[in-house]
Amino acid sequence: MRVGDKGGVTINAAIPEEGRRRFALAHEPGHWLLHADRTQRFLCWQENLRDYDGSAEDIEANAFAAALLLPRPMMFPAHLAALPSLGLIAAIAARFHVTLMAAALRYVSTLEKPVMVVFSREGKIAWWRRNDDQMKGLYGEKAQALSPRSLASAVAETGQPSGDMQPVEWDVWFPHLAPRSGRTLHEQSVRLEHAPIVMTLWWAK
Description:
- By secondary structure, this protein is of the alpha+beta class.
- Helices cover 36% and strands 17% of the residues.
- α1 (18-34) packs across α3 and α5 (86-96) packs across α6 (100-110).
- It is globular and about 55 Å long.
- The relative contact order is 0.13.
């Protein structure tokens, strides 16, 4: 909340993860700096911080928080040469004390590789983010049912991670698109803690 040139932020003490608390604390100054001409009585729920799929203000505040907590010059030199994987994203999350989701979104949007991250609930795609320069034209249909041939479907059913990055057929995830010539689609999936969400990393190798 802003009152004149002063403001305050209250974080729910019941949030169990350090990464989520840190992200919430970084999100609110984003509202302060980016939305000074709009209401400053923001009440942000976990969905606003988690889904990157809400109001324009919350999406901007999330991007601000990601850049603050995961500055690109510090984050990527050691990871540019590594092959995309959820293990690498988990290492980034641990290093910067952020959630796996925050690390994945920052990794995908900033790294110059053909990668995309997808979040699904109840067996359907909820939302996704991609590297626009590298994955232009590729998208998942919102509310698209997970194919039983996808690793994400097995993870949703069992709760167990899918293991290493594995090749999958294009139509498993992109039945609405023609296969990309010379590219093989790879997938790796994991269920997030504290939320009934499966996170999938795609790599068009």
